[in-house]
Amino acid sequence: MSPRRNHPHGAHRPAERSQESGVGGAGTEEWQGEEWVVRPIAGAASAKHYRCPGCDQEIPPGVGHVVAWREYDGLDDRRHWHRACWNAKDRRTSKVQRSRNAPRY
């Protein structure tokens, strides 16, 4: 005998729930008085190395992250951020300071 299912066979997750978690698609956030389009990227979807503007460190391929750009800018102005760096953007200073022993890649 199979275990009982808690959802009807073939049912999918509601769209509202996936939007809340940030996995479903792009959303907008206000930051520094401007509207930013924010889109989460799954780790498997990234195939290139990116540099996070929040910490100035590399985002390797296969790591989930966030892509953000100002609403009125073009797609060429997109920036790839670590999720933690994007969430901490208000607590960061304008100039990132690294220690002497920090890697420079």
From TrEMBL:
Superkingdom of origin: Bacteria
Biased composition (Basic residues): 1-12
UniProt region (Disordered), positions on chain: 1-32
Protein name, as recorded: ATP/GTP-binding protein
Protein's organism: Actinacidiphila bryophytorum
